[in-house]
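Narrative of activities, Objective 1.

The group set out to show that a structural description can be obtained from nothing but a protein's sequence at a throughput compatible with the screening campaign. Below is one input-output pair from the validation batch, recorded exactly as produced.
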Amino acid sequence: MDQQDIKEIFQYHYDSKHQSHQYARSPGYMDWENQPNPFRIYNRVTPVRLPLLKADPAAAHLDLYRRGNNQPQPFGLDNLAGFLELSMGLSAKGW
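Output recorded for this entry:
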């Protein structure tokens, strides 16, 4: 890769990003055919379907700030899946 290639890469990046005073250049419509897949897929890895919570956790929202109200939970698939579901907004669909 020579200096001209690097210059073109940086120029493309600059031209195609949002600015504080304007949106990035676009064709003026959503290009649905070229949207990236929002779900991570890795070669040679078997996906594991995580169980969704069957009920709301016993802790209330304000218990996030009152650590004494939170009971420790055992480490396992159900609790890990619940943590990810609540903290990262996992969807129930997407495979």
